[in-house]
Each structure stands twice: as structure tokens, then as C-alpha cells.
Amino acid sequence: MARILRARRRVVQSKTVSAGRQTNGNGNVNGSGDVEKHATWKSTYEERRTVAPDGTGLAYEVLGTGQRTVILANGLGGRLYAWMPAIEAFWRDYRLITWDYRGLFGSESPKSKRKLSVANHVDDVMAILDAEKVSRAVFVGWSMGVQVSLDVAASFPDRVAGLVLINGTHGHVLSTGFQPLVSIPFLPKRLHALLDWLQDHHEVAHQLARLSRVMEIPMWLVMRLTAGPRASELTPLLGRYMDDVLGPSFTNYLRLFQELDAHSTYHLLRHIEAPALIISGMLDILTPPYQSKEMARRMPDAEYVRLWRSSHFSMLERPEIVVPAMRRFLEERARF
């Protein structure tokens, strides 16, 4: 069962090219796998492109028939398929937009890797909102998308109708990642050194990526615990996620980890007045739940949902809790 804690306190305070509906040779929407073959929302799906302020080309996806907009900010490596329970639940009532982060998948890499910072991703999604003529939206962030969404809310509060923050943190991911109980002081520097070395040795990095496919086995075993019988249904999605993470964009993926560690909105949380729903999994070792609890404590209008039987994939593992919580938030608390 989810334990819900509510934390409330007061504080002072482009150019767009539509590619139309595109599918792969099997008739499935690009990037989404076999589970989408019969998706009823597919007729509303479009792939589009726009250009960021620095000239980087951005790929994004739009679907749904509603008038109000929900932005789906991906995790690092995830794509549209990671949102399937939310898409199936909300496509009739909302317009859903997600995008490929610069340097990953369909979006271009910037000329300088320094332009992979969270601030650049914030500028990117603002360019997409402007291209779609969206003045205000609810931001739903998963993992990396939590940091991006928090930065948007801090930098452009008038554009944010609400925040749904799933399996994420406020910043400095290497200071808490893979440290489920307590932070280990020396670990972030060691992880940075490893990430630096892998980016300087591309062939080794890609060999490591291939070897890392064995991680699917322990991930699947965790999902057997968290998702129960549904774990078998999630196996193709898990495989696709590993393909995306360990694919051609792997070196950019490593750099993005470092940019997420360099970023923090902790000092800004108390000024983010948008209503927020924060969801964490108690078995999440990548973004430990104590980070979500701290965000809920610091933010003025935050509701915290803690899932005891969930890891870093709460949307897919526990949709029977996550989706109704999102629906209540969208209907009762979001300020469109």
C-alpha cells in the first residue's frame, strides 16, 4: 500500500516541422515496441521537429485529443514506451508531449558537450512549448525528467500548471545514486573518474555497453518482485530500455550523468509554488526515496506517495497506484 504524506507550507513569495504520423516497418509507432501495436491512441500520434535557441535540432512527439497539455519529461534513456500506462489513461483528456533530450536518439547533439547541461534541456522544452503554442502545462518527470521539470518550475513558474515527479531527485545524482541508505563521501569522485575514462576510450565504453546487457537479468528479477505476474509483459519494454541506454548515444548518456550531478535545485525548492505530486519506490537504489521525501518537505505544496513494492520504474511496476494518483492530481490540484 502507498503511504501518503502531505507537506504544505507557505513561502514569500521556433520553428516546427511536422513529420506526420510515422511508423516502422511493422506498423508500430517509432520507439514504442510491440505493446503499442493495437494502441487506440495511435491515430493521434505525430513526430515533429523544432530547433533549440542554440540551433540544435530537437525531435518530439505529440499525441492525444485533449485541450490541456501534459509534458512527459523522460528518464535518461527512456522514451515513449516508458509512459504507456499514463498514455493509455490520459490520451483522450489531454494532449501529451514528450521529446528526445539533445544528444540522444532523434535529437541532434550540440556542437559542444557543455551544451548538454540541464539548463539547455530546459531551454529545449521551452522551445517545444512555444512551437506548439502552449502557454501552460503540467510537467510529469521521471528520473532525469524530475530535475528538468523542477528547473522549469523554478525558472518559468508561469508556464507550469503542476508537477508530477516520479523516481527522481533535486540534483547531484552521483552523491546519492546507488547509495540506498546513506551517502558515501568518496563515491561521487570515483564515479566521475570512471565516466571520464569511459568517454575518453570509446571502444571500451561500447564493449562495456554490450557486456552490460547481463543487467537485464537482475532487473527482471526485481520486477518479478515489484510488478508480480505483469513482469513478463514488461520484459520487451525492459529490453528496449537497455537497447536505448546502451545504444549509439552511450557516450552522451555518460556525459549526461555528469551534468545531472553538476545540477541542483535544492536551494530553489522552497520557492517552487506549483502544486506537486512526488512518487518514489522504496526499492529504488538509483534515486533513493529519501531524496523524494526531502523534496516534499522543502516544497510548499507537495504530496508524497511512497510505494513500498517499487523500484526505479514505478510507472510500469505499480500503475494501479500511480495512474489514479496522477488522475486525482490532474483533476483536483493542477492549475491549468
Relevant terms:
336 residues, alpha/beta, Rossmann fold, 10-stranded mixed sheet, 38% helix, globular, disordered N terminus
What report would you give on this structure?
By secondary structure, the chain is α/β, with parallel strands linked by helices. It has a single domain (about 1-185, about 265-330), classed as Rossmann fold (3-Layer(aba) Sandwich), CATH 3.40.50.1820. About 40% of the residues lie in helices and about 20% in strands. It has twelve helices and ten strands. The protein has a ten-stranded mixed sheet with strand order 1-10-9-8-7-5-6-4-3-2, with helices on both faces. β3 and β4 (about 55-65) form a beta hairpin.
What's the CATH topology name?
Rossmann fold
Q: Could you tell me the strand content as a percent range? A: 15-25%
Architecture per CATH nomenclature, i.e. the level-2 architecture:
3-Layer(aba) Sandwich
Structural class: alpha/beta
Please indicate the count of domains: 1
Overall 3D shape: globular
Amino-to-carboxy terminus distance: 30 Å
By CATH's scheme, which homologous superfamily applies? Alpha/Beta hydrolase fold, catalytic domain
The side-by-side strand order for the widest beta sheet comes to: 1-10-9-8-7-5-6-4-3-2
Indicate the percent of residues in helices: 25-40%
**Number of contiguous helices:** 12
Radius of gyration (CA) equals: 19 Å
| Quantity of strands, as a count | 10
Spans of at least 5 consecutive residues with low confidence = 1-37
Q: Provide the CATH top-level class.
A: Alpha Beta
Biggest sheet, open or closed, and with what strands and sense? 10 strands, mixed
Order of helices and strands: EEEEEHEHEHEHHHHHHEHEHH
Rounded mean pLDDT score: 86
